[in-house]
Amino acid sequence: MRIRRPALVLIALGAGLLAAGTATAVPTATAATVPTATTVHRVLFDNTLAETAGNADWIISTSMPDPTQQNANPQKETDWTGAISSWGVALQRTGQYKLDTLPPGNTITFGTSNALDLSNFDELVLPEPNVLLTAAEKTAIMNFVQNGGGLFVVVDHTGSDRNNDGADSVTVANDLMTNNGVDNTDPFGFSVDKTNITSDHPVAINAPSNPVLNGAFGAVHHSLIANGSTFTLKPADNPNVAGLLFLSTASPGNTNATFVTSTFGNGRVAMWDDSSTIDDGTGQPGNTLFVGWADPTADNAALGLNATAWLAQGSGTGGGTGTVAVTNPGNQTTTVGTAVSLPISTSDTAGGTLRYSATGLPAGLSINTTSGVITGTPTTAGTSSVTVTATDSTGPSGSTSFTWTVATSGGGGGCTAAQLLGNPGFETGTAGPWATSPSVIFSGTKQPAHTGSWVAWLDGYGTTHTDTLSQPVTLPAGCANYTFSFWLHIDTAETGTTAFDTLNVQVLNSAGTVLSTLGTFSNVNAATGYTQKSFSLAGFAGRTVTLKFTGTEGSKLQTSFVVDDTAVNVS
């Protein structure tokens, strides 16, 4: 994972919304079409803090965590059910965002293995939190932002306590900023005023180059208030704080702001004063809702979407935000005069281009600085300590170390050269001894084999799908070479350079725990024909492990991962 340049949107709603006269029609918000980006930003909408209490219905969809399970290709706000579905649908339609919802009963975390952990997202949306965050949740959010996230708080007026637990959204937001355990000294440089502005159309400052006021989703001139609050700015505490909209009765300054931005560490912060602005007037039955998002007297849709995009796009104060992790390939053993090819696997969340370097490689070997593959023919026997480093062009880097032993000759220690996999080319026409998900073993002209007639065809459905292929293998001790190889063909209907569909090749122990990810391939690697992939299993000598292929396909266009002619050769 990256620490994926997260952004957080904390949205609070008040009891008073818009005048009843605006509820007779529910227009669809219009916004500029945003070109498809090469990076897909993951946005997590929270639904754990009473966001649907009272008349609130602040969800993008009733399908959680994945709204596309309700409608995979939404075109209008009612294709997803929720009073902020317009927000979600507008993002989804750009193709630049992957949206999820944190369902009730979960907690907000950062840095855990949970799939809905903040470290897996670019942006967190908290729509009207009516429950005080726990100490652990506040720490998680602050660390998330400090490491490159953005915080977008849309609060409402004081007293908007929808679940009557004593904490309204104003209290929740101020508590986060003053009692978080990470920085309690006004880290963002502003606070929420305990006030109730019943009606106004705040005015945007003149800032033509500001991406929130003049972004890809349109220009912002006015917002609206239908019972909301204001913010007090404190630039002495954080010089990066800025008010973007102010009450129509006030001049820009340090008071009466209705939309503010700031930074914290490597992260970005934005806060909105009234959740009436994001109410699209549709939602679950039984809620009294009004049209704020598409209100024709304001530019709320453009403001909300521009801010979401700004928050999701990265660091607020220089430097790369994300992380680079290098997978340890295990200790290597080769022989003098025998060519090697060792791909190095990485996980990069910083969004730039990776460059690879290595120290301590045996004589005759080198690393490709762009692909990360170590190749060459060792010339000298001995043991080396190797360190491989991958550096993202935005700054972050990661390293891993392992030993590389070069022997004078193959074999030794009673090693018998052998190929260890059963049914390596799937030519029996059945899976065994492989374990597979249904319909993986295939023969036909749609996916011709590399040799023979049969292949293992993973994915290719054009919808959310996961296929697996695995086989246990016992690796004898005392051999010099342990090489796992296979031929791989990838074809796809996807375009561009974003990895929507992936194939992971992993080594697991008997309990199913992943010991190593040997390689990750995606729709970006699609090409005609087959390519042979090879990995060393020397680090697992003397053990029984499971080799597993896992193909994961997204919800739209197909990608097929076709495997043939596998082998584990020892000598």
Radius of gyration: 27 Å
Strand order of the largest sheet: 3-2-4-1-5-13-12-11-7
Query: Helical proportion?
Result: under 10%
Any idea of the CATH topology of the largest domain?
Rossmann fold
Quaternary state reads single chain
CATH architecture of the largest domain: 3-Layer(aba) Sandwich
Low-confidence stretches: 1-9, 11-38, 315-321
SSE layout and pairing:
Elements (H helix, E strand, L loop, with lengths): L7 E4 L29 E6 L38 H10 L2 E6 L20 E5 L7 H12 L3 E5 L14 H10 L11 E3 L10 E2 L9 E2 L2 E2 L11 E3 L8 E5 L10 E8 L2 E6 L27 H13 L11 E3 L5 E4 L4 E4 L2 E3 L5 E6 L5 E3 L5 E4 L5 E11 L4 E11 L10 E2 L15 E2 L4 E2 L12 E5 L5 E10 L7 E11 L9 E7 L5 E9 L4 E10 L7 E10 L5 E12 L1
Parallel strand pairs: 1-4, 1-5, 2-3, 2-4, 5-13, 15-22
Antiparallel strand pairs: 6-10, 7-11, 8-9, 11-12, 12-13, 14-17, 16-20, 18-21, 19-20, 21-22, 23-33, 24-27, 25-26, 26-33, 27-32, 28-31, 28-33, 29-30, 29-32
